[in-house]
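agent> Task received from the user: take the single chain below, predict its 3D structure, and emit structure tokens. No templates, no multimer pairing.
agent> Plan: (1) validate residues, (2) run structure prediction, (3) serialize to tokens, (4) report one or two observations.
agent> Step 1 OK, no nonstandard residues flagged.
tool_call: predict_structure(input=
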Amino acid sequence: MSCPETMSWRAGAALGGSPGDPGREAANILPTAPAALHSPAPSHAVLLMSRLRSSAVPWAVWRLARGARAFGAVPGLRFARVLGSGRDGGFGLEPGLDCQGVFAAFDSAEAAEGFAQHSGVAAAYRERALEHFSLTLQVSSCRGSWGGQTMAPAAGPAPSGPVAALTRAAIKPTRMREFWRHSPPAEADLAAAPGCRLAVGLGEAPLLRQATFSLWDSVPAMDAYARQGAHQRAIRASWGGSYFSEWMFVRFRPLALRGRWHGRDFSPGDALA
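)
tool_result: status=success, residues=273
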């Protein structure tokens, strides 16, 4: 399921908090100074994804409950979410207690890269992880908002090589059954889609606040998945039925991919070649 252009939606259930719990939403939003409310929308982002050692699961639950409040002062950070995932970082409804992601948005490439490589947040995940990767991203287009926050394309041409996409939505409780009825076939297509290098399921709250992140060889490969088969049927159903109270779809130019995921090692150039 997706926003207007792309992406499968059945992200793994996040732990803790109810979908409408304002305290949980606040835990994932950093306090913002009044002057910052009028500053430009963030243009860069980082996705951290970890499969943690079993001994680190209690820490992960605490981290999820604390949200971005546990980050402290991070230079250039505009907003952040600590996200649960499905088993093995996938899209099933069974939560993966040992899998966790962080999506963070920044006002510059330097701030994003500094967070990915040198922040205490990233280091805390790396030292507790069996597998961990970080992906630094530049926004190339954005529609919609996440917790009232949008993102702004950075200066420069649209990506002509690899492309990444984040799709996030708050699903209306009255539309939940209809939404999930369309999701499994779209996910099966994503898993087998030609040109999909990486896909993870993420969520802020079980069933109703879901997100999918994926990395593709090219825009045509991503569009080929999004505009045919089960995914296209899911798009028509979701938008015809007005399933979402809020949504955001972002395309990114990947800048640097590092780490290891599902047995595959990544180096910074892997996101660019």
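agent> Step 4: summary for the user.
Strands lie at 44-52, 77-86, 95-106, 129-144, 163-171, 196-205, 209-216, 244-261, 264-266.
agent> Done.
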